[in-house]
Amino acid sequence: xxxxxxxxxxxxxxxxxxxxxxxxxxxIYSPKRLVPLRARPQGSACLGLTSDTHVVLCALKxxxxxxxxxxxxxxxxxxHMGMAIAGLNADARSLAKYMRTESLNHRYVYGSALxxxxxxxxxxxxxxxxxxxxxxxxxxxxxxxxxxxxTGPHLYETQPSGHYxxxxxxxxxxxxxxxxxxxxxxxxxxxxxxxEELIKHGVKALAGCxxxxxxxxxxxxxxxxxxxEQKYLAIEDAATQPYLDAIELEGDSLRxxxxxxxxxxxxxxxx
Length: 271
Known about the structure:
By secondary structure, this protein is an alpha+beta fold. The chain contains eight helices and ten strands. 37% of the residues lie in helices and 21% in strands.
């Protein structure tokens, strides 16, 4: 009781708005909080591209060890929606769970599929709220969300800062610049492409993102196709081999380009 009475009688420490602002700024811009933001460009590459009717997502899977299995890079959200991830796996799974719950709730209440743009805006808000408070660190993952809903095919990118953009084609992750260059060069053809050709364009773009001295193979390639009459279709492992064989017959290389100085794969906890 004596301790409680002393605590009540003790005067409160001086506190001002300026002090609160300084404490907030120190926590928000702490170097430790910036570490997750560096995870997105260090995760293995993934990309997406759209035609007038379909969305294709392609991802380069990473294995932490020769004896370990490859980490999943493409996650299903709903029958009409999927996403590719680059960054911290744990953060990606957390966001995927939230997105699945929101999509399921919408389907249960309204009896129809949730529009991708609305869900991506909500996810971007979750990203941004983490940059406003020192209670939680920012999400260390970038997302490429592909969907075909009532408004047509869409491809969105979200960033840890809370920004989000819609693209015709986009690549993110380590060595993604090679993939972007290919997509920028050929994007005018995508609108009228048949699905098979769209997949081959995605695989060719992803081949440029492979680490030096390595090859894009069936074991480390994942593909997802979504269309108006085509529900979420995952193509993995041996099922991807026909596309790789077709590209090699066309004379295109599946080997990775030489890496830039200092460029290497990083933490195995990143996808």
